[in-house]
Write a structure and sequence with these properties.
Two copies of one chain form a homodimer. In chain A, helix 5 links the parallel strand 6 and strand 7 (about 165). Mean pLDDT of chain A is about 95; it is low at about 105-110. Chain A is built from twelve helices and 13 strands. Chain A is globular and about 50 Å long. The first copy, chain A, has a single domain (about 1-330), classed as Metal-dependent hydrolases (TIM Barrel), CATH 3.20.20. In chain A, strands 2-3-4-5-6-7-8-9 form an eight-stranded parallel beta sheet. Chain A has a three-stranded antiparallel beta sheet with strand order 1-10-13, with helices on one face. In chain A, strands 11-12 form a two-stranded antiparallel ribbon. Chain A has about 325 residues and is of the alpha/beta class. The interface of A and B includes residues 141, 201 and 217 of A.
Chain lengths: ~325, ~325
């Protein structure tokens, strides 16, 4: 049994830089038609020159020419209409983080001081640049995502023509928000469709399943599955795949994030097949994103076969999601 | 400034065996007057001979003669009135685990098949042997403890003269249960008074703070603090201190449990002082337990001084709770 996916898109991807970029990029460029590249490098991607240079490094890292890296820049207080206008042709979206939330984000926006940045949202709305947000509050870990809902609602109401993408949503509360505001969209990762906090911390603690936002309760995963398996038109696949060396995952203090690029498609096919929803996979991994972002990717047919694939224990210094486990589909 | 504690008692203690026993026991035997020793060795403590032999190994492991190890045995289906009668003079309580819940418990009670074991509870009630329970259901990790409440209630009602100690409680729901049933008691650990899930898994994942039951929400910790700081008469200190080698804590799959014995008293004094509740500390760490277990410990005065103590990075292969941090009280 075989299945083909036309131009799979990864709408949330961390490729890092230098050696790590060279190690991980080929898994995305081989299997996907494009990726939306996150800008949180050690020196964040801010300027047009940053974007052009990083895009070149990405393209140089891979032999697969049928892959397009679509770029983003960090949201920062210095952005304005002129800068955004100049950036527009080089980027697909702006990515916004609070200062504490993720790898290399710690020097950025210091507070939800929105008044200072209204004019940036207005400019993005005018220029039709989508806003991708990973924002959690600083509350209790299981509540951080949902406690940001009031801000999502305010933004969605104030800028009805600004496309706002709630990145890698993990909770039923955010899932429920999608149908309430026309301009709210979401990406969902593979791992949040498969795991809950139970997998991270039950019999043994599993640092390789520790990610941000943290995997939540079973009813939250159910809500995400309901969106993805039915290919809700405002939802796209975004792996949030992000590599960390094993020594940073198995440590006194373990880094967050999960590396899924090499097995994302295989696992998604397995999951959609299990739920008898294979007919919706194309929309979830490609068509919805094309409509949301108004873009036509390079045509690229990826074929998978129903044949066991044993996930490697590691790729260099990086341990992948599902290491040593067997997935019932392989890319051919 | 100095404070003395008269005969501090640790009512829930894991000392392990062999090299690990020799490494960790001195911290308990130096600072505490007695400990209630948990029976979950690789070969669990079941028989009178097991108890006598393990007690001797504990006493041999330490030079501090003013410490009494009070013993427990594993609850198992083969227990009956005759066996319990013979055990009674050697033990202080029976410890019950489900089969999946803790280190070396995985071969024990296979299900909550209570009908088969009613007669054991009856015998314990008659012989006045307390029942210590660490039981969580197999539900979602944050609900496992509270979902066992129905069983606690059934046992408390059915055997009103059986003293039932809910071990290392972590949730407000169990805290609320104490005043509803005369024969329900509880131990509380140091770490559950100090941390929530936020500390285990926020910016970085901290395997050395991973324990069972897992640390819960802020409102749960508040409920525990309320009991401990006010020395609720049905609540006792039980460290649940349990060492694991560093290599099992910083790994692909990290073991649970936290090693607190060397700094438990120092941290408790700091905590009670911070909340202006030093006057209740003696009851929480000694007097309540004496009344609940009807036992008079060896008199042992432990004196602490308000003087910074830097917690060592490690004791041999074991990383302690609060490693490298400073506590404002020292034992002298």
């Amino acid at each position: 049994m075989k299945i083909t996916i036309n131009s799979p898109l990864d709408m949330h991807l961390h490729l890092r830089d230098e050696d790590m970029l060279n190690l991980v990029a080929p898994f995305s460029t081989k299997y996907f038609s494009w990726g939306l590249i996150m800008p949180n490098l050690v020196t964040p991607i801010k300027t047009k020159q940053d974007v052009i240079s990083y895009k070149k490094r990405i393209l140089d890292s891979t032999k697969w020419e049928d892959f397009t890296p679509y770029m983003t820049v960090f949201f920062y207080e210095g952005l304005n209409y002129e800068i955004l206008k100049e950036l527009k042709n080089e980027i697909l979206a702006i990515k916004m983080y609070p200062d504490w939330v993720t790898t290399n984000s710690n020097w950025w926006i210091k507070s939800i001081d929105l008044e200072k940045i209204w004019h940036i949202f207005e400019a993005m709305e005018k220029l039709e640049i989508p806003l991708c947000i990973h924002w959690e509050t600083n509350d209790f870990v299981m509540d951080r995502e949902k406690n940001f809902i009031a801000i999502y609602e305010m933004l969605a109401k104030t800028y009805p023509k600004l496309k706002i993408i709630m990145e890698h949503i993990t909770s039923k509360d955010l899932a429920n928000l999608l149908d309430q505001y026309e301009n709210l969209y979401a990406t969902i990762t593979l791992h949040h469709l498969l795991i809950t906090l139970d997998d991270v911390a039950w019999w043994l603690l599993q640092p390789h399943l520790f990610c941000k936002p943290i995997a939540k309760r079973p009813e939250d995963r159910e809500a995400l599955l309901n969106l993805a398996l039915n290919a809700h038109k405002k939802v796209m696949f975004g792996s949030d795949s992000a590599p960390h060396p094993k020594e940073k995952k198995e440590a006194e203090f373990c880094s967050a994030w999960i590396f899924t690029s090499p097995i994302a498609l295989q696992c998604l096919v397995e999951l959609f097949e299990k739920h008898n929803k294979l007919g919706n996979l194309q929309a979830f991994v490609s068509d919805n994103a094309q409509k949301i972002y108004w873009i036509k990717p390079i045509e690229k047919i990826v074929t998978l076969e129903k044949k066991d694939y044993i996930v490697p224990k590691n790729y260099g210094e990086v341990v992948p999601f599902m290491a040593w486990k067997t997935v019932s589909w392989s890319v051919i």
